[in-house]
Design brief:
OB fold (Dihydrolipoamide Acetyltransferase, E2P); 16 strands; 0% helix; six-stranded antiparallel β-sheet; SH3 type barrels; 188 residues; 3 domains; five-stranded antiparallel β-sheet; mainly beta
């Protein structure tokens, strides 16, 4: 058993007869009244996100997990195929379990959290940043350089990201997978 002081991003807990992964949390200690922890939880079975507030010291049932490195192979409808990099066993996961499926390139190595009780995969953690090539974007218009002006761009995985005006087709860009946002251009 854990308490609210053990809550951290990525922790898997049993809550409301389901397993949830903590996406965000905030410890709040108001000037008046008891402290509490405000959390955003994502169901690992359905993918639904729920906001919940735990009072300080509340007991929570955590799920023991192991992490394994898997290589992303290919998508097939709403099912994604992965291969364990150690023993080459393949698994399939539903799209709802993935944090940012539109930013995964074939061959990408990700971390899969596996429940130690039943050996079922719970969720997939992407690397913090991925480098993808821009396949389509409109050219930037000269003179249209207001502060932080952006334009939509499509990357090689099909995801659409807002990028600065100086980014062109063929450029490689670094993308923050947590926010699905442009970080920087990669020079070769």
């Amino acid at each position: 058993m854990a308490t609210t002081s053990d809550i951290k991003k990525g922790l898997c807990i049993k809550f409301n007869h389901d397993i949830y992964k903590v996406i965000e949390f905030l410890h709040v200690k108001p000037g008046k009244g008891p402290a509490f922890v405000r959390t955003k939880l994502k169901s690992v079975t359905t993918g639904k996100i729920l906001d919940n507030t735990f009072s300080a010291g509340h007991k929570i049932e955590d799920v023991r997990v192991e992490t394994h490195k898997f290589q992303y192979l290919y998508p097939e409808g709403d099912v994604y195929h992965f291969m364990n990099t150690e023993d080459y066993n393949q698994i399939t996961l539903q799209k709802s379990v993935l944090d940012a499926p539109d930013l995964m390139k074939e061959g990408e190595v990700v971390t899969v959290l596996i429940n130690t009780e039943d050996n079922m995969p719970l969720s997939v953690e992407m690397p913090s940043h991925v480098i993808l090539e821009v396949t389509h974007t409109e050219p930037g218009v000269k003179g249209n350089t207001a502060t932080n002006a952006t334009k939509p761009a499509t990357v090689e995985t099909g995801a659409r990201i807002n990028v600065p005006l100086f980014i062109n087709e063929g450029d490689k860009i670094k993308i923050d997978t947590e926010k699905s946002a442009y970080t920087e251009r990669i020079k070769e």
